[in-house]
Structure formats: structure tokens, C-alpha cells
Amino acid sequence: MLIFLLRRLIQACFVMIIISLISFAIQDKLGDPVQQMVSMAVSSDEREQLREQLGLNDSFLNQYWRFAKGAIQGDLGTSYHYKEPALDVILKKLPATLELVFCAILLIIIVATPCGVLAAIKPKHPVSRLLMIISSIGLSVPIFIIAIFMVYLFSVEWNIAPSFGRGQTTEILGLWDSGIFTKDGLNHLLLPSLSLAIALMPIFVRLIRAEMMDVLQSEYIRFAWSKGLSAKRIYFIHALKNTMLPVITVGGIQAGTLVAYTILTETIFQWPGMGFLFMDAVSRVDTPLIAAYLIVVGGMFVITNTVVDLIYGLVNPTVRLASHGL
Amino acid sequence: MKIKVIIACYLVLILCNKVSATTLEIALNADPVSLDPHEQLSEGTLQFSHFTFDPLLRWDKSGQFEARLATKWQRIDANTMRFFLRRNVTFHSGNPFSAKDVIYTINRLKTSPDFRAMFNSIASASIVDDYTVDVHATSPNPLLLNIMAYVFPMDRVFYQGQDEIIKYGKTFASQNVSGTGPFVFISRELGSRMELKRNPNYWDTSSPGNINKIILTPIRTDSTRLAALFSGDVDFIFPISPIDIERTKHTPGIQLVTIPSTRILLLHMNQNRRQEFKDVRVRKAINLAINQSLIVEKILKGHATPAGQLSADRFLGHVNELKPEYDLFKAQELMKQAGYEKGFRISMMAPNNRYMNDEKVAQAVAAMLARINITVDLKTLPKAQYFQEFDNHTADIMMLGWQSDTMDSNNLFEFIVACPDDKTGLGAYNASEYCRSSLDDNIRQANREMNQEKRINLLQQIERTLYEDAAVVPLYWQSLSWAAKNKVKIQDIVNDQNHPYLGDLFIDK
Lengths: 326, 509
Hints:
The structure holds 2 protein chains of 2 kinds. Chain A is an all-alpha fold. Chain A is about 75% helix and about 0% strand.
């Protein structure tokens, strides 16, 4: 276990170094940060001075070396726009994104599991067929269309949920700016988390269905039937447990998709989270913030994958970590 | 002293709570980069300056100057203007406003990288008495008042000693505000929310404004912003995308206000990159082949005014006879005469997120040029990358939009069509590399000419020369649109510079 975690840590370091190198290499292609800071009437001499002060005229290696030295001490540079350490800016926005993702995952689990199980147990039932049709549509319609449609329906036409922002937040323990403890905050969470969940729900419904159907054919289920166990126990304890194994794996991989979708969802709903921050940073060519975001997200990827592997071991003790996936 | 201020603030708070608070929730496409009014010369910063500061004078709706912190002004001689200041005005900090604050602000503007270019023409400012200031220009300057509209006096006692301007770092002035304006800064979360409350001691007691609190949310996505208004989450938004205009007009309970602006969109034809563009007949043909009215009608849904020159009609240089022309046959004739009947292939670049529908306009232009056998390789880029390419003059045809800071034609001429000169900064955005020394002489002279009539002649002459030379392709002047709930009386406070005077905004209860 310890060796496994240690290996993962080394792996994470490699991933981050590569990400930071790539994010540095593409900086020049993103545009000129100085142009974003000054008005159009500012002369090219003045711009040149500013560029010099920011160290943008140094060679790639020099700039990277400066960045790497800071990064080792936990300093990922200072955002041009926010004028604060990039890492602090991102961590301040982290709660908003995590709450959004958490609610979306919760929705996926609550909705997709029973739907998938139902579709597997009674594949011919009209409800199951309807579920399959809806999930195919869900897979093919892009998320921003769903989101815009939901805004139109829920906030403009019916006036049930607010159309943008996070609403009222409360501070928990002085660290976590939370929106899930007030009615207003929950109300604001509704549409963004729902559209994020809808983006990933179909794939899970289909996956759970397919896996479950597979498992239901296996020997031990037939044995359980003949032993006279109740249907509820067979479906939801014995079959579902084995169904979840590949689902967790895919879920771990999908965590990346989830991050990508938060960028879209947060932009549409003006959700003040990391994805929104990233889009903003790209349009402003706030290069230190872009690099820091990519590194933090890279870190999150490694962490979720590690956690998934650990859960794997808990669900199915026959999987041994040391020999698995490394 | 401090205790008194705190007690006063506390009493004000209690009093404010008793009054039924009128809150305005406003959503714009951007928020100010900094709270320091001198850090960046941008629309967001100037809007913010009008909320929390007051200018010496400001533009009213008819294009005249309106007295604000200066009650009147008079010209002493060709180089000097005297400003008489308003008495009994206090800053948000409680410090009294006087001539010293004006001098301090002008001197600080002269050190700001963004404002310096404009204020270089001001040699100095001197105190006559506590409420009178003389402003000395370096040379006779017809635009002195236009420039002074950018002076928003800052609280000298509050800022002094910690007033450095740094573009990429935290400064005192970028985090703290003390102006004389109608609203007092409360708090902000950069990029998501800013809160302001009414200044209880505001000097302008005749203002009809009745807003007690402003909550400003930047919403970048057009559809989200519009949905926020329709769902009632916000009261007032800017801008409205052209495709949404019809719908907004017909939504009950919502009003739409549109004003033509002076921002010109144009195309540069680079004469040094392309031999063909050196021929005035080719430039003329391109001008004739592009149908400005069609672009405005179809792509911008009438949300702009087709242009046949650079100066919008409120500018002195505007010549009424110069209308946008479209004549495909004549264009083809001219191409034939120039020996390019078979046409040629050129590159073109345009931004895709800077101006309203910029990418679609560029595509339409490319299609129109195909009619005179000019094949266009069009590339559109996000603004962050586009302007880098623009500075390097990477393509044969490049799109540019320009808003004159001084609300005067000459600012357009200086930046867009004067001969490029690194030393003087003239022609900094002249990607045509068009150069005519007689035009430059006129531009220089128009900067000094104090006789209004002669100056109008000069500016119109420049505009006519540009037309005859077909130096650039003027496309249109973009319009500005705001939408709000009916009870918010925005029509009286919006203007063609997009600096809504929220201090005077009235909301029906």
C-alpha cells in the first residue's frame, strides 16, 4: 500500500513536470499578456518596457527555470489579472467547483444506478426502452444546448431557479466558502449541477445496464436464485457489487471529462469556479494562471485515479494493488 | 476624527436601513480591471470612475459639456484654461475637496502609462486659490476640455504616499477608493461581483437618482446575460447581441435603448505587402465592391450605421456628402483598368471575439471581394492573438475598430491613417502603411488650430482626401444597446461613450 502510494507520488511529479513544460511551451501561442494590460493608445516603447519588467523577453529556459524554482517552494507565479499568487486564486475558486462536481456526481449516482439496474432486469419493459432512447439522445446532444435550454425553461419561462451565479454563500471554518447550506445557494446549484449531471448520466446508465446484464448471466447469480434468495438481495447486493467494478474504473476516467465539462457549465452559468476562471484566464492571456490551473487539474487527475484504484481494492479484495495498473 | 467618521458611517447605515433600499443589479460584459482609475484606460475603468468619482466636466447627451466638479471654465489665453471648482464637496473618506486634489490628480495622470499619451499635451496645472485651477497646455490646444473630461479628482490626502501605479501588482489605489462620486465602494470579488452604496453626502442634490445600492456582476456570455434579465435576476444589462434585439424588443416588461456610437470599424489594405494596393483604382474597387448597408442590415440586424468615412456625424470632421458606395459594375471596371481583371489572391485577418459579429462580417467581406475576383484567405483569431498579429501587420487586409478617446476626428486620423512613426507614435494602428505627408501636415495643424471654423475645414479636408485616396475601407459605426426592466429609467442616463451615469438613474417603486 505504502509503496503503491509512493509510486503514485513519483508518477504525479512526472505528470506535473510534463504539464508545466507543455503549458510553458504554448504560452507564446496564446497571445500577448501585455496587450491585455494596456489601452490601445499606449506606445510600443512603453509596452516593451512592461514586457521587460515582466521578464517576458527572457529565453524559454530562463523563464521556465524561474518558474520551476518558485514551484518547488509552492509558488506557481502571480496572476497578472488578479495580482495574487495564482495558486491562491485557484484554491479560492476550488470550493465552488468541488461543490458543483459533488452535487453532479450525487445526482448521477442517485439517478443512473436505479435506471441502469431497471433497464438490465427488465430489458423489454417500455420504461427501460424509453430510458435507452433518452440516454442515446443525451449522449448525442451537446451539453451547452441542454444548459441553455434549461435556463430558458427553468429560469426565463417558469422562474423556478436563478439563471446564473452562486447566490448566498456561508463560510465554513473560515476556509470553505460554501453554497450548500443556504436555500438560496442550493437553488443556484440546481441548474448547473443538473446540466453537468445530464452530460455524464447516459453513459453511466448504459454502462451499468450492460455490466449488470452480463453479471446476471453468471453462475453465482443462478446459484443464488436456486438457493432461494430474495430478488432484492440478488439484484442489489450480489449482482450490483460486481457490476460496480468496471463502473468505478470508467468513473475515474470520466473525472477528466467532468473537469472539461465544468469549464463549459461554469461559463454558461457564470459559476465562479475554476473552469470559469480558466476561460477568463485564457481570454486575458493570464499565463501564470493558465499554467497553475493546468498543474492543479493534472494533480487532481492523479489523485482521483489513485483513489479509484484504492476503492477498487475495497470493492473487490482479490485485486492486488502492487501488481495492478502500474 | 476617525471615531467621528465611524460614528457618522454607523448612523448613516442605520438611517439607510430605515429607508426602503432601492437596489440596482446590473450585468455588464466586463468589470474594471482595477479600482485605480489611472491603471488602465478602458471602458470598464471609465465606467467605474463615473460611479465612484466625478469628472471636472462630462459629456451630456447632446454632445455638449456639462459642469461637474468644475462649475465653470474660461480660456485665459491660447495655452491656458481656468477652472472654477465646486465648493463644499467631500470625498468618501471625509476629506474636503479642493484645488490641491485636482493638481494632484493631473500630475498623477501624467505618470500613468495609459493616460500619459493624452496628458502629455498638458504642461502643468497650477493653483490660483483653493477653488480655482489653471491648466497650461504645451501649445495651443483646441481639445483641452475634451482631455479634462478624463480628470476625475482623487482624494490627495487619502492616496498620497501610497499611490504608485503598477500594472501587474497589488497597490493601495487598486484596492481602496476615495472619490467624490455618487457611490461608495463596499466590496468586490474580482470577476464575479462588486457592491457599491449611495454616497449619503453627495453634492449633487438635484440629481433624480434614487438608487441606494448597486450590485455589479460581469457576465461574459451573451445568452446568460440576457437570460438573467428575462428571469428577473438582474435589472439592467449591456450589451445585447444583434440576434437577440428583436426578441428583447418584444418581451413585455423589458425596454431596449439603442444609441449610435462613434466607434468605427474599418479594413486596412496593406500597401507595402501588396503591390496591387498601391494602385488607387484597386483600393477604390474594393471600397465599391463592399456593400456596407447589406452587412449592417443582414449581419448586424441594423445595429450599426453604414460608414463612408471615419468620422461619425457628431464629430467635427464628418462630411455629409461622403456616403458608403456600392457599385459592383464600376468596381469590376476599375479592376479591369488597373489590369487585374482576373483578380489576385490575398490574405485577410480579423478578430472573432472583439467586435460585434466580427467574424461574420469578415466572412461577408471575403465573399463580396470574390465578386471582383479577389480571392481572400481569411483567418479569424481571438482578440488576444489577433492584436499581436495586427501589430506585426501579418495579413494583407486587417480589421480594426476604433473609438476616439477625445471624441474628436483627429484622434482617429492620428492613430489610423497618419504615416507610421515609431518616435511620435503617430499611425500606430495604420496597418495600411498608407502615407501622405500633406495629410500629416493637416493633422498636425488641426491639433493646434484654435479657430473652430478653420479646424472643421481642416478635418473635413482630411476626410475628403482619405475618400479620394480610398486609403482604408470604412465599414460602419457600431451601435450600443442596453436593456432593462421597464421601471428602470435608463434612457436618460446612457450615452454614446457607454459610460452610464448611474448616479442619476431613477427606478420607479
